[in-house]
Design a protein that fits this description.
heterodimer, A: alpha+beta, 5-stranded mixed beta sheet, 2 helices, 5 strands, 24% strand, B: mainly beta, 4-stranded antiparallel beta sheet
């Protein structure tokens, strides 16, 4: 299972500890996480299910490219970091 | 008569109360967070607060029965149809996502769970369950003229004013920056443009009097006489005596007719208050003197009220939701971009400074 780590700054609003989930893409893994923690979805994704404008996701140190469909591949050993982009202040 | 103010600021929600004739800060919630607007529902007594977390998006909280706050649903735009393309006034793809909550208005007394919510980029939402869930009003969002709305003070168009007729909850007016005034007589099933007579000088002559081109900064109506509506417009002050169908421009009001907020007395349609500034890029009080203007005769004459307000080196701007009038029509309060907060208990004749070091103030409401 892929490991998912959320920025500490989000924890002030909604608890989302590091977790693990199955999936072959960023979107699939996050969907699995959100099934168990629905409230955090709206903090990371916008109304259309894309990554919020000033959020970033790294997979094994690489910035994801598909912010709309979150199709970047992951494998069972991947670590996904959900961070804030400094472009958002 | 209300003894409590909710003050929405860039860095938290401040609760201000009256004690022995003076007003002071009692507490702060959401400290550090961007609080954009509050609404107190007179039917339930619950408070609603809109937040913009920037990175994490727009959120809504409601006061909990047990005390404190609970997060509730924020308005969410529907899924954009596959292949559908829509662009903003800059030619960029328009994101169907809530960018800001800019208006919150309770429904009528006969529909206790109903709340209306206006947003950027132009979606109007309605909740029938006290904000637990929201539905976009498709009839307005899908209206072909909605795509003609433009940004006013922001990149995206937004609904900032919502008025529900206290005698008929199905009758609702909204105002848009920029997109003019819209009215429904059937609870949002159909919409018609209102606002003939307003004038926009920031568009070409052929559009100057087009109701959809109008940048209404704030729209209010007298609760006792809905025929009377007041508009603080980008171009000045306009007044209607026919429920917003037609407006008359009021000019020659010292020190300026430019500003953002307007308040109207709940029982006297001829009494209204404004907070003027220099039009239009400067947006500071004329001669650095902060004043409120008031008419008591439907706009024929205006008084300039500054007793208790700073009369030198004041550079305060007052946003459209930052002037409040309580249900008695006697108490007013306003807050500024430079963190000043003032209260009047005599319809603006005299003002009491509450604090001048708050973060930028976005909204002031009596609770």
């Amino acid at each position: 299972m892929a490991k998912v780590v959320f920025t500490p700054n989000i924890q002030r609003h909604v608890a989302c500890p590091a977790t693990e989930a199955d999936g072959e893409s960023v979107g699939e893994v996050l969907a699995a996480v959100f099934r168990g923690n629905a409230r955090v979805r709206g903090y990371v994704l916008d109304d259309q299910g894309g990554l919020r404008k000033h959020m970033t996701i790294f997979v094994d140190g690489r910035l994801v490219r598909d912010r709309t469909r979150l199709s970047d591949p992951v494998d069972a050993t991947s670590t996904i970091y959900v961070f804030q982009a400094l472009s958002g202040g | 008569m209300s003894d409590t103010l909710l003050v929405s600021t860039r860095k938290g929600l401040f609760r201000v109360g009256r004690h022995g004739g003076s007003w002071r800060i009692e507490g702060v919630d959401f400290l550090g967070d961007n609080v954009t607007l509050t609404m107190t529902d007179p039917r339930s007594g619950r408070h609603y607060v809109a937040l913009d977390h920037g990175h994490f998006g727009v959120k809504m909280h409601r006061s909990a029965e047990a005390g404190g706050w609970e997060e509730i649903a924020a308005p969410q735009y529907p899924e954009k149809p596959e292949g559908y393309e829509e662009h903003d006034m800059w030619g960029r793809p328009l994101a169907w996502t809530t960018a800001r909550i800019w208006a919150l208005t309770p429904g009528g007394a006969d529909e206790p769970g109903v709340i209306w919510c206006g947003t950027l980029p132009g979606g109007l939402f309605r909740s029938a369950d006290h904000g637990r869930s929201w539905e976009i009003v498709r009839s307005l969002w899908d209206h072909p003229k909605r795509k003609m709305w433009m940004g006013g003070g922001a990149d995206l168009p937004g609904i900032h004013s919502i008025i529900v007729d206290p005698k008929n909850s199905k009758r609702v007016w909204i105002a848009v920056s920029t997109g003019g005034i819209w009215h429904t007589g059937d609870a949002g099933t159909t919409w018609e443009q209102r606002g003939e007579g307003m004038r926009a000088d920031h568009v070409p002559p052929e559009l100057t009097h087009d109701p959809i081109a109008q940048d209404v900064h704030c729209l209010v109506a007298c609760r006792a006489d809905m025929r009377r509506m007041w508009v603080q417009h980008h171009n000045g002050i306009f007044v209607s005596s026919d429920e917003g169908r037609t407006f008359t421009e009021i000019t020659d009001v010292a020190p300026s007719t430019f500003g953002f907020p307007v308040a109207v007395h709940p029982r006297d349609p001829d009494q209204a208050w404004f907070v003027p500034g220099i039009k239009d890029e400067l947006r500071i009080p004329k001669d650095a003197k902060l004043v409120v203007t008031r008419t008591r005769d439907g706009g024929k004459t205006f008084e300039v009220l500054g007793k208790g307000l700073p009369q030198e080196h004041a550079y305060d701007l007052v946003y459209r939701h930052a002037l409040a009038l309580d249900e008695t029509g006697d108490r007013l309060a306003f807050g500024s971009t430079t963190g000043g907060l003032w209260v009047s208990e005599d319809q603006g004749e005299t003002w009491q400074s509450v604090v001048h070091t708050l973060p930028p103030i976005y909204a002031v409401r009596f609770a």
